[in-house]
Amino acid sequence: MHSDKDKPAGEDEDRHSGYSRLRSKLRLLYHSQSSKAQRFQFSVLVVDLAIIVFFIASPLLRENDSFLWIDYSIALLLAVDLTARALASTDIKRWLRQVPVILDVFILVTLLAPTWFFNLGFLRILRLWTMTRSSTFWRPLNRRGYAEYRETIQAVINLLVFLFVVTGFVYTAFANRGAEGIAGYVDALYFTVATVTTTGFGDITLPGTWGKLASISIMIVGISLFVKLAQSIFRPNKVHFPCPQCGLQNHDPDAVHCKACGHILNIPDPGNY
């Protein structure tokens, strides 16, 4: 028979064992390539994209009676996802120090306190950028044959994130505060696109010195992102496969040796990595 002193220790071992099993299961779901994990990862990707759509449409839905309910529901989903990804990591403390994770935590805070962080709500679109820092986002796309378009997809996403962050900033900082022509979110989006493309119709302008500086910054960064996107579209296709020897990230799809160090690459077929 076991003494009473042995029971707490046994219970602690059971809890520790259960915790370890949970982490192992989550690690397999988020990072393995089994059929079950693939279905799970694709489902996570679909849910994440639906959340991004809500973030983009948020400025137009704020007056809706059900907005807060949707907001808190998404906060719950994001909290569950962050917790699961933390448990799936090999080192939780190191995982928490990553920039995409810090941004996701900040986005979660804006969802939990939408009234207090109303003016920073436009930064939620950064969730789209943090998604692309995770293999969970790219693995389902790679399996469906989009690996060779990774750089182009990333360039498009970077440009979209920039456009909507700037639109949110312009709308929050200048709408109804002296900016000529900016009465709503669509006006702010119109101004942002016109400025980024350097079209400059002049029908909407930001007032004062800070408005001019903001416009200059938008044009410079926007043009840079457009150039990056054009390069990724028109230059020869590359595959993302880090060289084990020197770390060079992109290679020709049929490359046998790394062009930087000559190391044998053994690049798998697009659907297998």
Folded structure, characterized:
It is found in: Membrane. It is a multi-pass membrane protein. Residues 161-232 form the Potassium channel domain. The chain crosses the membrane at residues 42-61, 67-87, 99-118, 153-175, 182-201, 213-230. By secondary structure, this protein is an all-alpha fold. The chain has three domains: 1-145, no CATH class; 149-235, Orthogonal Bundle (Helix Hairpins), CATH 1.10.287; 237-273, no CATH class. It contains ten helices and two strands, in the order H-H-H-H-H-H-H-H-H-H-E-E. It has helices spanning 6-31, 35-61, 67-88, 92-96, 99-112, 126-131, 135-143, 150-174, 185-196, 208-234, and strands at 239-240, 250-251. A two-stranded antiparallel sheet has the order 1-2. Helix 2 crosses helix 7 (135-143), helix 3 (67-88) runs antiparallel to helix 5 (99-112) and helix 8 crosses helix 9 (185-196). The termini are far apart.
Beta-strand content bin = under 5%
Can you summarize the main beta sheet? 2 strands, antiparallel
Q: Averaged pLDDT, please?
A: 81
Shape: flat
Q: Tell how many strands the DSSP assignment holds.
A: 2
Distance between the termini: 54 Å
Helix content percent band: 55-70%
- Rounded to an integer in angstroms, the radius of gyration calculated over CA atoms is 23 Å
Please trace the helix and strand order, writing H or E for each element: HHHHHHHHHHEE
Structural domain count:
3
GO biological process, one term: action potential
Main location: membrane
Subcellular location: Membrane
GO molecular function: voltage-gated potassium channel activity
